[in-house]
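for ur thesis appendix - LysR family transcriptional regulator. copy paste whatever u need, i formatted it the way the template wanted (i think)
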Amino acid sequence: MPLNPNLNSLAYFEAVARTGRVTDAAAELGVSTAAVSQQLKRLEEQWGVKLFRRQDRHLLLTLDGERLFQTTTAAFRMIRGARTAVLRKSDSRQLSLRSSPSFAVRWLTPRLKDFLDQNSDVGIRVDASPDFTDFETEAMDLDTRYGSGNWPGLHSECIVSDYILPLCSPDYRDQLRRLTDDPREQMAAARLIHSVKALYQWDLWLAVHGIDMPDEPAPLRFDRSSMAIPLACDGAGILLDSVTLAYDELRQGTLVPMSTAFPAVEFPAYWAICPPRHMNRRIVRLFIEWLRTHGDTFQVNARGMLQGFGCSIRMAEAGEPGLL
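the 3d part is after this line
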């Protein structure tokens, strides 16, 4: 067997294994079916194994063929991704960005016009996804991600620190106040709305404040803050969620702190992440600098708004689960 397998034969093999038909692979590759069959025969002879068995009108992989396919399909996917990345990087005016969905919709997108006004020759692609970018196989320049900041081997910097505290509609707050003057008793009587992907969860917050809640007969759980926040605005219960994401509702008065007896908890929450090599691209550095500037301004405004409500603010302590 040759020391170095024929890459052309491997490409033909991968296409047939993926499509299941020589004719489909030939059409995809833009060659004749005879050329594909010849390359498959040559590869089997080189390797000394059978890679396919025929069933009806389809070609099915043998065990050896399956092993080879798992390797080749991953390799060609990485090569295609690298090619896309190389071609894209030749255009210094194009930025591909992935972001946590709620952050993309509620914080990032409303501010993007400012960046585009300052950089009118820049094109941006935003992919709002809960899945973190695999920078080795995906053609992405940057990821803006909600999380704890633990991404080994990657450049990461906090662009927005968040504030967490119980939030509800003014009517719901007044309804609880009519029951009792004690904020802890108010909380025990409240219906909780859970944002299940938030770093700071209700069980941690309740434990910190020594509040025992009755069992929830019908819990409300949402995997997007963009769904939980409107429900709290409608008076369905109390939400423990991000001031960053609920900023507009707090500013407009459709959400308010449930009680100023409970301080807002501050912690690093939203990050810009990329491989260190991506920092060599001017467009990436430019966008991170823009994020940093807007993040600093936003934090000043958010802190001022909370203090205007009469809320105190404390930094999350080392050891609080999920945060530090």
